[in-house]
Amino acid sequence: MSYTLTVNGRTTTVDVPAETPLLWVIRDILDLKGTKYGCGMALCGCCTVHINGEATRSCTTSIESAAGKHITTLEGLSEDGTHPVQIAWQEIDVPQCGYCQAGQMMTASALLAKNPHPTDAEIDAAMDGNICRCGTYLRIRKAVKRAAEVHAKQTVQTLNADLIASAKA
Amino acid sequence: MATTLPKLDSQGSPNSNGKSVMNRRAFLRASALVGGGMMLAYYIEPVTKVMAAQFGPPVTLLPTSFITITPDGTITIIAKNPEIGQGVKTMLPMMIAEELDADWKDVRIEQGDLNAKYGLQIAGGSTSTPMNWDPLRQVGAGGRAMLIAAAAQTWGVPASECSTTASRVHHDPTGHSLTYGELASKAATMPPPDPKALKLKDPKDYRIIGKTTPNPDIHKIVTGKPLYGIDFTMPGMLYANYEKCPVFGGKVKSANLEEVKALPGIRHAFIVEPGPDPSALAGGVAIVADSWYQARYARDNKLKVEWDEGPTAAQSSQLYASTSVELAKKEPGQVLRKDGDADTAIGSAAHVVEAAYSYPFLSHVPLEPQNCSAYYKNGKLEVWAPSQTPSTGLSQTARALGIDQKDITVHLTRIGGGFGRRLTDDYMVEAAIIAKQVGAPVKLLWTREQDMAHDYYRPAGFHFLKGGVDKNGKIVAWRNHFVTFGDNGRFAQSAGLSGEEFPSRFISNFSQLASMMPSGVPMGAMRAPGSNAIAFVMQSFIDELAHAAGKDPVQFRLDLLASTPLPVAAPPPGTPVAFAPVAFDAPRMRAALTTVAERSGWGKRKLPAGSAMGVAFHFSHRGYFAEVADVHVSPSKAVKVNKVWVVGDIGSQVINPGAAQNITQGAVIDAMSHAMGYEITIDAGRAVQSNFHQYPPLRITSAPVDIDVYFLKTDNPPTGLGEPGLPPMIPALTNAIFAATGQRVRSLPLQQHGYSWA
Question: What SS3 state is found at B630?
Fold first, then answer.
């Protein structure tokens, strides 16, 4: 079967059986390796992507149900590492092995898109579906807070730029 | 669960023919030395001698093997050891860069392939620091000497008058100065100096070592670039899955290969016979497809295998537990150490405590499932392997394929978690065998379920303890009958116990005894092997004796550590010098314990109802660690770890402090997973648990708000940190639960006793 979907802003068509998990389309057909396989049962969160803005486990999402939707993977946050979550993860130097961190960052970026100033409890609740086997949770908490700060700063800068632009116009 | 359990005979064997069912793999693996060395390495030193005894004498490392400087000033440094998240890809090049006197901003780090010129390349036993501290600093200093020699020759001045700063050589009398980049071509022609003749820096002059230095792969990780074994691709690559018998040691009788091959995308399906070493290559069915999901789909939905399950099918965790109780009633098979007369002393002690402790099999569950890519062409093999012991994988692969080691190239990938699982290279041998058969590049990937079903598990164990304290609260007797796995007087892999294990030597009437039962379950080293279970037993029972004596648990331990230790037992005749045990250094542990008590406010903080603190310490992998946990337990047994304090002594230098904090906090989190939820149950010769819903790693909501990590700097050589922070946290937690509730936890995991995370 042929399915059309938009991944990181690019529309693409793939020809795979309906039940094929989105994870394997992303990894092995679209060759985007940031999204990881960890459990195949939506238990660990390694495979988290955004589907129409919602943090979703791609290992249990069939291509049939993803068709026609907007999908963002880690590579789609930014290619150069300048998304607030990517900046914060680098500043805090969160990873040990790093394998789970794509999923952690995708869950964190979905959280911050909806809730730019989450409380400690809201951070834990949002991130609870993502296992870090190395146990970097204390740094993940710090990094989510730092990403919120970076996001707020970027938002102010964007607003200022918009204001300057509109004042000039 | 079988309704009738087979009885074990005196050898512990359920076989009627009198032959032991102990799988031969345990012996082969024990003699393979990697894991055996891991067991030994926690109480012996120097580590370089130990490793030499296993892997041959260390090669002299040349500066030119590790350092490349281009005219633009870029300094490329090879990271030699496998990176599993323990930070060696940063830390080992820091040692070189420091003595090279490089400016860190000029440094690029490259992962080295497996190559004899890099010396031993291993991620295990917390050995990267102690094994490389001297040789890699000498590599850097040698490189610096070659740059100075090139500058001295260029300027016609004595080398002794030249100095360096941050990637530059200077000659102060003339004012000459050249960058490393400008000197690189000439320096490469200078003879490498004798490493022993090099003067290394005074640590007070360090500019790189001791400074928090970020992970060199961080930008690639946050932007999703391919880094890990699972990410490797090459043109024309096929994807494989490999299905093995769910019963350990079982073989394929037959499989519906034609039906599998009829599915779309399936290129090959074939049976693989067990290899010459079944622990390196178990029999199974290989399915090779155009995409991995096609192979997996075929395995899940079409493949039907008739297995020859073999004798292990009669074994279970329940059988092991009941057998351990029977063996504990008998005379022990081995006396590991005996001082005085523990049995008589217990008879006259003021307070006697008797307790049976146990812990289950554990699976490593690194988040990146086992995988390896391989390409066999014209008699030569190339592999891309996430392995902690690539040299072991190389020799096993050569043997299984019947080709020469020199015809195999092993590339090391970044690794999505090791924890000891990747000390075993079964996935590498499997990938190579499959690649040879299909004649195309192949990426083998296991499912999570296959990973949990085919591990080399942390062995379960059973300890039957008796201890006595006198009226002054001093321990006067200790008897531990350890029932474990093994056969013919040889412990199974990572299932041993040292006669010198603490509190050995600190109690005058002391018996450390062992009995063994055979098992077909594959066992292996897991992060802090031995220690990850032994610390729970020893530090819990010490806690029981402290409470029986009516003493404060910290003071009781300090008193125990203050007694004059008995001598270390002479090693058995014929033991190589390198394997001679060294004495546990009690003053170092006393300092760690005193410091953690101070930092945690032990005995000084008023805690709310239901909250309490627990303490424990453990010496492993040359590191001294004492830990305190502040824990709340609700009436419904919901456990919240509020804060943990860790004090470690790993010698004179913490090389990368930020990474050291990260990995130590991770060790505490890992220990909490062990304590609460990890358990592999064996039933009918196979693992019952299959994925994270049945084997739950700790999640963020259960992580403490803070884990305070503090390192004592002592006048000892720097040692490793991957492991020794983990073991004390388990008993610190269970001792805190006792202090909060009066309930003593004597078997793990906690969830078996109705506990859960709050």
Answer: strand
- Cα separation, B337 vs B569, in Å, equals 8
Task: Tell me if chain B has a CB within 8 Å of the CB of A55.
Answer: no
The whole-number pLDDT of residue B57 equals: 72
Residues A155 and A73 in one domain: no
AA letter at B238: L
pLDDT of residue B14: 33
* Amino acid present at B259: E
Both tokens of residue A146? 């730092």
A93 touches chain B (CB under 8 A): yes
**Closest to B223 in 3D by CA, of A134, A147, A35, A139:** A35
User: For tokens 């024309």, what's the residue?
Assistant: B236
Same structural domain for residues A32 and A4?
yes
Question: In sequence order, which residues have a C-beta less than 8 Å from that of residue B318 and are 6 or more positions away?
Answer: B1, B5, B683
Residue A51 and residue A34 in one domain = yes
The pLDDT score that the predictor gives to residue A5 is 96
Say yes or no for a CB contact (<8 Å) between A39 and B233: no
Give the number of domains in chain A: 2
Phi-psi region of B119 (alpha: psi -120 to 50; beta: other; left: phi over 0): left
- Distance in angstroms (rounded) separating the CA atoms of residues B525 and B424: 9
Asked whether the beta carbons of residue B293 and residue A34 sit closer than 8 angstroms, the reply is no
Q: How confident is the model at residue A156 (pLDDT cuts 50, 70, 90)?
A: confident
* Angstrom distance (rounded) from CA B231 to CA A105: 18
Q: What is the ipTM of this complex?
A: 0.96
Instruction: Report the gap between the CA of B575 and the closest CA in chain A (Å).
Output: 37
The bridge status of strand B611-620 relative to strand B623-633 is antiparallel
Which residue in B559, B554, B564 sits closest to B647, CA to CA? B554
Residue of A nearest to B265 (CA): A16
Q: Are residues A88 and A59 in the same domain?
A: no
Query: Domains of chain B, with CATH numbers?
Result: 63-223 (3.30.365.10), 229-311+370-445 (3.30.365.10), 317-363+457-757 (3.30.365.10)
Interior CA angle at A93 toward A92 and A97, to 5°?
145
Among candidate residues A11, A44, A77, the one where a domain is terminated: A77
Q: Which residues of B touch A143 (CB under 8 A)?
A: none
Domain boundary among A56, A77, A98: A77
B448 touches chain A (CB under 8 A): yes
Q: Please give the model's pTM, rounded to 2 decimal places.
A: 0.94
Candidates A7, A71, A133, A150, partner chain B, best to mutate (most B CBs within 10 A): A133
Asked if residue A151 and residue A115 are part of one domain, the reply reads yes
Q: Does A99 touch chain B (CB under 8 A)?
A: yes
d(C-alpha B42, C-alpha B46), whole Å: 11
Q: CB distance B665–A101 less than 8 Å?
A: no
Tell me which residues of chain B have a pLDDT lower than 70.
1-54, 571-583
A60 and A111: one domain? no
Domain that holds residue A30: 1-77
Question: Which residue of A20, A75, A137 is in closest CB contact with B223?
Answer: A75
